[in-house]
Structure prediction request, 279 residues.
Amino acid sequence: MTLLLKKRTILPGFGLSLGYTVLYLSIIVLIPLSAIFFKTATLTWDVFVQTITDPLVMAAYRLTFGASLAAGLINAVFGFLVAWVLVRYEFPGKQIVDALVDLPFALPTAVAGIALTTIYSPNGWLGQFLEPLGIKVVFTPLGVIVALTFISLPFVVRTVQPVLQELEMEVEEAAASLGANRFQTFSNIIFPAVFPSLLTGFTLAFARALGEYGSVVFISGNLPLKTQIVPLLIISKLEQYNYAGATAIAVVMLLASFALLLMINILQWWSRRRRTMNT
Prediction:
């Protein structure tokens, strides 16, 4: 009787759907990642430690995680402002600005790298004004941050924008009628509602920046101990046919990224749970 009353759905049942899901994730994600660990396992422990603690590798790790974190934080601030302007204001050319936000999605990363290098070079459109001020972008860590900020901006804007659209302005007006100033309205009403999505956008931007290669290879110059990021270092290892060394560096990168993303997701879950309890 229970089976007869069971609601039919268009998609297959739970068992079949779960089987397809596990199979698909195994082929696309789990098997390639496991191959990295198996290849790294061919190294002895001493060789593995020596590979991942090499000064060249450590400098690449510091630059990659530092620049990715900086790009994520910059986009968390200015991406929120862009989303706020697109949602709350009407102005000529708004549709064009909204479309430009998605440009880093569609633009090939190599093209983005060439464009940024051309603009910020000493004789470029912006570089010619920054050079006299002592600000050098191309072939510096600052250039890496600029490239990572460019390619990860849409993740924050497109994550925060729908939440701002659903946030009713009547609530803000009610807070103002009760005597709340702008800062109090933002800190007590707007920011708590937007924070989970903002944290999600930051996480996506940070994760995207960690694996970026194409846009950075041109503007950074791939200078060892200075502007060489981990993906570029891995490519260099592969070009030297040092596959085990490349996978060893990739394993550390994978584990560190997973740990950081797990911490951010836990923080996101905690903020959502706290918000639910308060409401």
